[in-house]
Amino acid sequence: xxxxxxxxxxxxxxxxxxxxxxxxxxxxxxxxxxxxxxxxxxxxxxxxxxxxxxxxxxxxxxxxxxxxxxxxxxxxxxxxxxxxxxxxxxxxxxxxxxxxxxxxxxxxxxxxxxxxxxxxxxxxxxxxxxxxxxxxxxxx
Length: 140
What we know:
Blueprint: H1 2-29, H2 37-48, H3 51-73, H4 76-82, H5 85-97, H6 104-139
Helix pairs in contact: 1-3, 1-5, 5-6
């Protein structure tokens, strides 16, 4: 369980950092002015040469790799809801790194996400605690 939590936390940190870098890179690159091949090509070239964009994509890929590993090892009903913590990490990163204003309403949402993740983690611990009892009962 500890190993899974460490992988999730490292993955979520990568995901939050990746999103922050992608947001910063997109603000540097600019918006799509119109939907035309030359404009899309301009944006794609700018993205492909932007260090923040490349680093953000790499961090998102690291998060995805960790997620794939976790999904192969644990119940999806445990792993996937835990990824909701990315909203928590990303909100904190946006506040600290991008100096975004986060309203009390948003912080309340972050608190609810934390409560939900805590319940999911607790339910996994309860499940693990019951496993040895179930095995003993089956062998009698």
